[in-house]
Protein 1
Amino acid sequence: MTTQHTTDGHRPAIRGFLAQFFGDHQPADEDDIFATGFVNSLFIMQLVLFVEGEFELTVEDEDLEMANFNTVAAIDAFVARKRATVAGD
């Protein structure tokens, strides 16, 4: 059995962070936020720092894959997986 690591509980905070860069544009859960043209090269570092600070976890070098950060749903799932790992699930 596969455990799906995602929760809607993280998404409001993620959307709040993204709103700083996207203005009135609200990306859908599966929209590639890097393909929108609203972010620059510094955005990924700001996003990683946000994820670490907001969700009190450490983003390791091996976690720095676009698949973990390119959509709201992917960020949410990444946070859920990291928290589950820390909790021992």
Protein 2
Amino acid sequence: MRDETAQTDAELALRAAQALDLPVAVLEPDSFLVRLENARFFQLFASSGQEAETLADRVTGFDPEAARKRLAANRPYVQPLDVKSGARTLHLEMKLRRVEAGGPAFVLAEFKDLSKQKEAEYMLDSYSALAEKNARELKREKERVEKLLLNVMPRQVYEELREYGTTTPQKFDSASVLMLDFVDFTEMAVSQDPGAVIAELNDIFSAFDRIVELFDCERIKTIGDAYVAVSGLPHPNPDHAGALARVALRMKRFLEKRNASHPNTWRFRIGLAAGPLIGSMVGIQKYVYDIFGPAANLAARVEDACEPGTVAMSAEFYRLLDGSFACSPLGETELKGFGTCELYSLDYETPS
């Protein structure tokens, strides 16, 4: 009588479950024989027509041994399942639990549809991956822009431009300028393969950049085959003349070594000058950081006046050097805009 009552209760519960859109089944405790099932279970886990079918016969991937161990320990058994329903794949969670409601024990198999939760998680993962991808691309683009801008302006000026959207012209009472130019470059470019010549020029300027950076100086710009670097701006440097003199000597040594091992000979002139300078950003559509003032003009005049293969400097630059350099007087020279000026050659750095 008691068994019949329990069975009746289970059937009543299953009839109520028929109204549910989720699968439900009642199983034998040990064999997992399917005793009762609702319509949704029948729809998703089709019967083969056998008289007695277990849950393993109906549900692909079900592990009866693992389920028995869990239920024997009085713990529910949970297993995720992916089930085809027409063109869709449903993500289900199957939960088996042992029920003893005053009658024979049975196992109740309940299924929870996790499809919407999975879809939401998938969308969140997709959005997160897309956001991370966009963040990485934005970072790379920012770094690329920063690198391009640092090619045309000192970092301090770039940071001021980034922070305030503009830069303020700065006057420097004493700074040094280096002007390097190659002799007969135009003829070389015209008479030889221009692509190869420009590639060599790019290699040389790249080496100059490393030398300039090594002594905490700044490359201001290149104009064709001319290379302009400064020391003492935008960061003040009491030894700006010494730093730029070391740069000039290493440029000279680099070119001499290169000329000895390459078919093309790059003949150069380097002019050095010191004095007041103004550093400022110019241009609206295309930013260019440039220098203005007597020192910049004088360096160009000194470079133009010196012999190929030499490093020449103005008297002011010479007076700023300490005893670490060997120099030779070049005599007085008439420089356009500056009149008669005394020049010196920078020969080498003396051992300390």
